[in-house]
Amino acid sequence: MVSRRNARCLAALSGVLLLAYGAVAIAETSAAIAEAADEPTETEHFDCRQLAEWERPESPVEWFERSLWAGHCHVFQARAVRIGIDGVRTLALSRDIQDGVEREVARFLDGPPVFFERRGHIGRMSWSNGDPEVPASPAGMARHIEQYYRLSMGSDERIANRSAVRLDIEPLDGLRFGHRLWLDEDTALPLKRELIDDRGRVVETFQLTELQPPQLYQGGVVLDATPAPPQQAWGAGWLPNGFLDQPVDTQTDRHDPEVGHRIYSDGLSTLSLFVEPIEEGRERLIPGLHRLGISLAVVRHVAVGGRPMQVVAMGELPPRVLAQVAESLSWGEASEAPE
């Protein structure tokens, strides 16, 4: 049970999480919020018009990659329903592209009024680390997840009055959750997503119920630059295989390298690490395991050089994974994530 105080704190952390990155696949077009990066002086673009010339995908990995590109290159409006252990919510979704910059809006139609907006570009798979060839996230992600998930084709179905191709995505270990995706046969846009926990239970379903005919953007979408990783005094000492430090600037205190937020992802599953000092008068979380919707958070209080710090590992992952990540935090000058 989460206390009212802990619920407020976790809700704030969840808001920061949404501000920092958009979840992959169908969540990327719905409830993600992100701060748009500063426009680089020399921009690269992905020409969305070429999608109309590509051959129909054949393999599960090809369908998955096509769905990611489609999510960046189509303009549409839709209605959706989200079903989770915390209840049922309906949403209105819209997606637009202006001058190569994507804009996604999600508005809940029932319950407490919530409005999410994301403006951004096509991201990169990781920080540059001096490598000028860091792939754009759709291409890099599709190649990456093959190493940690088994992708297969399921039976075709009909979702939101459109023909859909089903992808079954099963983790190759017990350290992450599985997924089922239903992709629009014509555009490869995600129409439905199920999140499956390590016990085989469907813990969340997100499904479009109505989709106005999507339009392919007739131009280029901006590709993010390849930034160098920030220098922080801490990082994850252990991560499940395949989790990479994401190129999102989440430094919350420019004057204190021990305070901040880092995001790690294997391309489908994502976890976030928060570190902040425990100070008099500031609300803190009770150490242990907490649940916020389908997300879990493990909280630890540690002393670093005599300074009390709060560590939170949060994500849609098995509790034992979050606990091990939180317990393995490494401290030192300019700590980097492990390879």
In short:
By secondary structure, the protein is mostly beta strands.
Kindly describe this structure.
This protein is mostly beta strands and 339 residues long. It is 14% helix and 41% strand. The chain has helices spanning 4-20, 60-73, 137-145, 319-327; strands spanning 44-47, 74-84, 87-98, 101-108, 115-120, 149-153, 157-159, 162-171, 178-184, 190-196, 202-211, 215-216, 220-223, 232-235, 244-245, 260-265, 270-277, 288-292, 295-304, 307-315, 330-335. The strands form 4 sheets. Strands 2, 3, 4, 5, 6, 7, 8, 9, 10, 11 and 12 form an 11-stranded antiparallel beta sheet that branches. The protein has a 6-stranded antiparallel beta sheet with strand order 15-16-17-20-19-18. α2 (60-73) packs antiparallel against α3 (137-145). Residues 1-41, 130-134 and 333-339 have low confidence and may be disordered. It is found in: Periplasm. Residues 61-212 form the MucB/RseB N-terminal domain. Belongs to the RseB family.
Helical proportion, percent range: 10-25%
CATH homologous superfamily identity of the largest domain: Lipoprotein localisation LolA/LolB/LppX
Q: Average pLDDT value?
A: 82
Q: Which strand-content bin applies to the residues?
A: 35-45%
CATH architecture of the largest domain: Clam
The beta-strand count equals 21
Protein name: Negative regulator for alginate biosynthesis MucB
Subcellular location: Periplasm
Keywords: Periplasm, Signal
Family: Belongs to the RseB family.
